[in-house]
Amino acid sequence: MSVSLNNLADLKSGNDYYLSDSGNIEKSGFIHKFKCFFNIGHSRERVVNLINEVQKTLLHSAGLVNSRDLNSQLSQISRTTAVSGEVIKNIAAQFRSVNSQRIIEKDTESIANGIINTYVTDIQVKSGSNIRNSNALHSLLEKVVSDIVNNPPLTTDKHKNKVIDRKQLNSTLRERLFNESKFILKITNSEELGKPKLSTVYLKYLKDKVYDRNGSRIINDITELKPQSEAEKEVMLKDSHLARGGKNAEDAVNYLLERSENDDELREILTKNYNHIIVRADAQIRSLDALKKKIDGIKSNLLEIRALGIDNKKIVEPGLRALEASNGRAFPEGMLTNLSNGALNADIKALMELNANSSEIEIYKGVDSISSAVTTIMHETGASEIFDDNEERFPPEEFITDILISRLSLEQQQSVNQAFKSGNNLKFQNLIEKLLDAGSGGLPDIPNSYGDMAIFMIDKLQNITNSIQEKINIRLGLNATVNYPHYIGFTKFSPEEDDIYRGICANVKKEIKYRLDSFIDKNIEGEELGKQKASLKEKLLDFSAKIKTNFKSPQYVFSCFIKKDFATILNHSIMEELKLLRSGKLQDSYFYKDVIRNLDVNMPDGKKLSNDPLLAQNELAQFVTDNPNINFAELDDKNKDKVYVLMTLLAQTTVQALNKGVMTAIEPNRKGPLIETSGAKDEKNETYSFTLQKDEKSKYPNLSVNYSSNFSVLNINGENAQTITTAPQSKIITSVSFDLSPQFFEKISGMNLDEYPSDEINKVLSNKGEYKDISNKYDVVSEKMTQEFTVDPLMNYAGLRLELVH
User: Residue 201: CB partners within 8 Å, gap ≥ 6?
Assistant: First the structure.
């Protein structure tokens, strides 16, 4: 028997049970008990699988995510022997007693949804409306029967449990839905109303206008209703975001409706996304010119879909779904064509060949063929960079998946469906669940830094599996919902699972490599840098597997990668300048010279740091102490040191440290900076700016540095050092942001710098004496800085943009 609430109550008290690989409760005989006793094969795991499936079934029956009492009871069951039928019955009965109302509500909801779905399809067919408005129509019909669902007819079962009178509930729901569907169809056939289409927004109008809060019909004469355009306008203008827009909002709504007046498909796309189309991110109404541009882009997408549909009608429906789900964002011109071409030509043979006898690894390869195709197409078309978060990626990824599935013949869809119903697919789902349960830190053979990415891709694999089955079920006219029994992970992988897992690991590394390579290709351009880019790609990939924290983004990996060299050079700059400032030689400092030369420093509240050195010093004193009335001369030595530290950072030495740190880190042989601009001053235009603020939560001072340079002469160091002439548009843009924690200031304030090895470090940096021929001078400098004199800023990110133009 399968695992269900009723079947658990029917278990025999004198028998013991386990869960078979096909997801059924099986009576435990002598052989299974013998295997359990000696822990042979997966016998004990099948016992645990039953306990987990009982937990899942009970929680699902009541619509719960967790239950401490249930967890406690189940935890006391022995995992080394078969499970007693009496124990399960008692636990299920007690859970049912405590959660009887929840179970009735969940059961009623399930029955109602099944019947509503039938009438949704019936109304759509008879009214000629598109299936893409199913959710809106379902929502309306849910409201129509809400009073019945909230007060279902009840009876008792053979175990004296209070349960739903299914026959009575079914009859009552169908009678109500039959009558209301007739009324809705009467509206769609009304000549007086212009035979309105059941668009998503018009369905919302009917839901709010025709029925009260309890679902009772309050309008019986259809002449009291508005035609489609007027009704849709009413709904949109009542929206909280548009209601405040006055005449601008009304003009925008009128324009949107006018643009789609004779095009039902365009109308559904625009009205479904009216909020995103009309209202800007800052909650202001778009101008009509901006609205025109946005709608033109969406209409261009629609025309592109229709053009593609001339040769392949199967593309149209996925295309319309993608546009309706896009939140009003248009795809770049030609993008939908590229995505569809990729989907039509992708290799999904592994999925097409699945059948009821497919092995676990064959099912994985079938699913992975879709997952890999989606990922590859998104990357190759550039869509993954344009749509750069999960919500934005959903429409293009679903578009691709829809087209991939549409390539399956009816026989192939049926065969794939049989594969997904097989025990081997349950094993595959078990593996996925096991990996997800392990979490980002518990996956074998995966570097800790790759853990989050691995979980993301495993979760995506599960979502793709469900999406494939749901799409096939819809095409075959079956229930779209997908549910699998829950299995616990085995103590070790089977040979097939090991192959699957190695495939997953390879995909994780492949995805990370792609993201890192794309980051480098996007930010470093120039034919002369081919070898250097290849070396950097290899080094970044190797480094990404060794960082202690999780892979957050390519920029994060890059920031960690350059941090050591940047921090080493910056550390030395701070010590040298600090000694100078402490000795009273303000006029000799870089800060003094740069401030006089109109140093650009953005301060809190939109203020700028003064370009008078003494005034600037006072302003930094006020920033450090949060006292707007204090002057630098009034500070104690400790707070003066804090100001001195900021003065050392707010100078070109920080920019130099940033550039040298970045360029040294990316030079293949670490001989020094990879790129150095040279030539006369009028051939190189440099700008740099600083932003100094305090984080609202941590109260740490935060410093952001931005540097850009246009140049016409360039030295490329490394294995084949060369000097090349480029166009003035060639540029280097670097940036960094770091926090200066209290510990940072605490360590520097009052630090005795008498023993700081300035002379020795400067000899290394200038390649003098015994350091004349060393190649990795910044590594040597780092070694010479004892822990006593090492202070590192807490880096948030570092950025680079290098572009050579001839």
Answer: 231, 232, 235, 236, 271, 272, 274
